[in-house]
Every structure is written in C-alpha cells, then in structure tokens.
Design goal:
With 311 residues, this protein is mainly α. The chain has 13 helices and two strands; from the N terminus they run αααβααααβαααααα.
C-alpha cells in the first residue's frame, strides 16, 4: 500500500511539473510569435527602420523576445537539467540579466525621444537620427550587461576558481548566494529603476507643460503624454520581476518543496512572462501605422472579377 501511495504521489508531481513547463513553453512561443509579427512588419517597410521611434520600439520587442526565450529555457532547465556546468550557467544568467535590465533603459530612451519630438520639434531630426539611435542601443546593452558581469566578478573574488568546475542548479538564487550579491542586487535595482523613473517623470512633466502652450500641437502632445504614461505602466510591470527573487528566498525558508515550486511558478508567470505579452499590445496595436500593416497582413482579399456582356 505504501509503495502504491508513493507511486501515485510521484505520478501526481510529474503531471504538475509537465503542466507547468508545458504552460510556460506555450506562453513563451505565443508571445514570441506575436512579437515576431511586429518584427516582420518592421523590416518589411523602410518607413519603420528609418524612424528612430520605431527602431527603439522594435529593439524593445526583440529584447523581450530574447528575454522570454532565455527565462523559459532556464525555467525548464531547472526541471530537466538540475545539474548544469557552472560556466555555461553563468553565461545564460548574464544574458538573462542583461535583457532584463535593457527593458527599463529602452523605455527611458523612448520617453526621451518623445520629449524631443514634442518639446524640441525643430531640432528633432538633428538630435534623433538613425545613427544616434543605434549608438543609444549599443549603450543600453553596454550598461545593461554591467550588473551581470559584476555578479561574475564577485564570484571570482569570493569563491575559489575551482567552483567553475562544478555543476549546480542554474538559478540566480543558487549560483549568486553570497551576501555581497544581495547588496549588489539592491544597489543595481535601486539605481536602474530610480534613474529611469526620474527620466519618465521629467519627460512627462515637460510634455504636459508643452501641451498647454498655444504654439504646440495639442493632439500630438496629448498622444505623447499617453505614450509616456504607458512607459510608466510598463516599467511598473517590469519592476514586478524584482519581487520574484525576494519571494523565492521566502519560499526557500518557510514553505515545503512542492508548495514552493508551485508558488514560484505563478509568481514567475505573473512577474516575468505576462508583462512581455503586453508590450506589443500597449505600443504596436495602438500605433496606426503598425495597425494598418497588421490589417493588411492578415486580411484575405479575394479579387473581384467583373464579367461584361459582349453585346
């Protein structure tokens, strides 16, 4: 009887694990397919890739696609490959950390571009050029990779180098488990989010002031206000992902293993995956140019043949 109960319990746990991973993989594929439509439309028309605004937007979309792919892979690996070589795991964690940091930085860059377009319209074409936009994207990646490299440097300093010959579960909680990493995470999270919030608040206030001037295009300024507000909403959703690491530590200390995995799955789903589904819906669908291209892409127009009488 005990053997049968243990077998049934193992079967139930296997089913739960399969459902979690299947759900996550399905959501990841769905999100990347939706985002892939916007990437396809972007590169199909020169109107988009010659406009700094759309270049920054598509960078946000591609970055989110990469982040979804990396995070889903890490989540599945936690079950399918529990002992990962540490050097390979660190590379994956650095890429995931970089894409995570790139999102708020890109949102800040998009807000600054809207600020220049509304508050300095005569200088917009000189300031926001395509070349400078790509330079900005390069800087975003350079700044975004710094926290991941800093965590690696801390491991090299604190731990013996022989640790890179070992295998471990590929999660940041397990790999970066020193008090120095906790302090480093607190500093980087606070610094990145505070800088981005200052930029968003400043640009929004400047756009509001510009909207009240008689010489400013009211409709364009109002649309820019709504865009920056959406940047703030997206940033709030991105900040939810910071809760996952805190909850993970609470689960590890206070909750049983199976319950901890279930709660971690739902918190991870709500704070990391679902916000990436909202990115194309928030920005792409509300843009009339993207919306027109989407309608044209998915519309099935049959040719109408007129038959005229020979009489």
């Amino acid at each position: 009887m005990n053997s049968t109960m243990l077998q049934n319990l193992a079967q139930d746990r296997y089913t739960e694990t399969f459902i979690r991973n299947f759900t996550l993989v399905l959501l990841g594929i769905t999100i990347n397919l939706i985002n892939g439509v916007f990437v396809f439309i972007f590169f199909k028309s020169s109107f988009f890739y010659n406009d700094p605004r759309y270049i920054l937007y598509i960078h946000l979309v591609i970055n989110d696609m990469l982040m979804v792919f990396m995070t889903v892979m890490l989540f599945v690996m936690a079950y399918a490959w529990p002992n990962v070589p540490l050097p390979f795991c660190v590379i994956l964690l650095i890429i995931a950390s970089t894409t995570h940091k790139n999102t708020p930085l890109t949102l800040a860059g998009m807000a600054v571009e809207r600020y220049v377009a509304i508050c300095k319209p005569l200088h917009h074409h000189q300031i926001c050029t395509v070349r400078r936009t790509y330079i900005l994207i390069s800087l975003i990646w350079g700044v975004g990779v710094i926290p991941g490299l800093a965590e690696l440097i801390v491991i090299v300093i604190v731990r013996p180098l022989s640790i890179f010959k070992t295998n471990s579960a590929c999660t940041s909680t397990v790999v970066y488990n020193t008090p120095y990493h906790d302090e480093l995470n607190n500093v980087t999270h606070g610094l990145y989010t505070s800088v981005v919030w200052v930029i968003l608040v400043f640009t929004y206030c400047q756009v509001v002031i510009a909207a009240r001037r008689a010489t400013t295009d009211k409709s364009s300024a109002k649309k820019a206000q709504n865009t920056i507000l959406l940047h703030g909403a997206q940033l709030l959703l991105c900040m939810l992902s910071y809760i996952t690491a805190v909850l993970d530590k609470i689960y590890f200390l206070t909750i049983a293993d199976q319950q901890r995995k279930t709660l971690y799955f739902f918190s991870y789903l709500l704070t990391n995956i679902v916000p990436r589904l909202l990115t194309p819906l928030i920005y792409g669908v509300r843009d009339k140019h993207f919306l027109n291209h989407i309608k044209r892409l998915f519309s099935c127009k049959l040719p109408v043949v007129k038959v005229e009488s020979t009489k």
